[in-house]
Amino acid sequence: MPTIKILPHAEYCPEGAEITAPSGTSICEALLDHKVNIEHACDMSCACTTCHVIVRQGLNSLNEADEAEEDLLDRAWGLEPQSRLSCQAILAQQDVTIEIPKYSINHAKENH
């Protein structure tokens, strides 16, 4: 099972973490399964940018972003070339390192 290394984030994961998840799992699902309560206002339907992450290592091991995801990412806060929507980024066999951006464009936080 691949490992996801989560860099420290003041709100979601202050100490950082390393979690494992089966291949074929989205990064968002893996985070939520391990009590890293990343925002996902659209319920992982690829309709918002609240689950935006930056893949610091292992980007090439993930599935490719489709056009709908890329269009949404254009509106994400702190967009970088390695940005993905965690609900759309599917784990393969390799480990990944992610950073959760400090902000999202969500005006009202959801309590998922």
Describe the structure.
There is one protein chain. About 10% of the residues lie in helices and about 20% in strands. The chain contains two helices and five strands. A five-stranded mixed sheet has the order 2-1-5-3-4.
| Radius of gyration based on Cα positions | 12 Å
- Which consecutive residue ranges, at least 5 long each, have pLDDT under 50? 107-112
Shape: globular
Can you list the strand order of the major beta sheet?
A: 2-1-5-3-4
Beta-strand portion reads 15-25%
Instruction: Give the H and E element order.
Output: EEHEHEE
What is the straight-line distance between the termini?
26 Å
Average pLDDT, rounded to a whole number, is: 92
- The tally of beta strands, per DSSP, is 5
Number of helices: 2
Which class best fits the helix and strand makeup? Answer: alpha+beta
Helix content class: 10-25%
Largest sheet: 5 strands, mixed
Pfam families: Fer2
Family: Belongs to the adrenodoxin/putidaredoxin family.
Domain 2Fe-2S ferredoxin-type: 2-104
Protein name: 2Fe-2S ferredoxin
Question: What's the topology here?
Answer:
Layout: E1 3-6, E2 17-20, H1 27-33, E3 52-57, H2 67-73, E4 83-85, E5 96-99
Parallel strand pairs: 1-5
Antiparallel strand pairs: 1-2, 3-4, 3-5
Cofactor: [2Fe-2S] cluster
Keywords: 2Fe-2S, Electron transport, Iron, Iron-sulfur, Metal-binding, Transport
Organism: Variovorax humicola
